[in-house]
Amino acid sequence: MSNIIEKRVDLIKKANIYFDGKITSRNYTNGEGVIKSLGVMLPGDYSFDTKAAENIEIISGKVEVLFGGMDSNWETFKDGESFDIPANSSFEIKVDEITDYCCTYL
């Protein structure tokens, strides 16, 4: 887990709000032009479709993820761990406790 402060960011003030506010995030572009979002997920079960490939870092909390095309292999991720989601795919996520995350669009 990195605590490096990135400089020269462009922040989009409008929040991304999903599932009636149970998942929220804000996008920004860092100094190298990489688009990221910082957000919070409340406990629950959610389904997502992706357009771009993503890396999701769990800053704090705990989730279980079922990657698209899999039948029963849920994987657990917690503080400081991350996982990749391919472009044009889907995944299921069970949020076990309030989770702070950072998503990097690859």
Task: Give a nutshell description of this structure.
The protein is mainly β and 106 residues long.
Task: Compile the SSE list and pairings.
Blueprint: E1 10-11, E2 16-18, E3 23-29, E4 35-41, E5 44-49, E6 54-67, E7 75-78, E8 82-85, E9 90-105
What's the architecture in CATH terms? Sandwich
The secondary-structure element order is EEEEEEEEE
Percent in helix: under 10%
The amount of beta strand, in percent, is: over 45%
Number of E strands? 9
Name the poorly predicted regions: none
- Per CATH, what is the topology? Jelly Rolls
Shape: globular
Please, how many domains?
1
**CATH class type:** Mainly Beta
Number of helical stretches of at least 4 residues: 0
Question: Could you walk me through the main structural features you see in this protein, from its secondary elements to its overall organization?
Answer:
The chain has strands spanning 10-11, 16-18, 23-29, 35-41, 44-49, 54-67, 75-78, 82-85, 90-105. It has 106 residues and is mainly β. Strands 1, 2, 3, 4, 5, 6, 7, 8 and 9 form a 9-stranded antiparallel beta sheet that branches. A hairpin with a 5-residue loop joins strand 3 and strand 4. The model has no long low-confidence stretch (mean pLDDT 92).
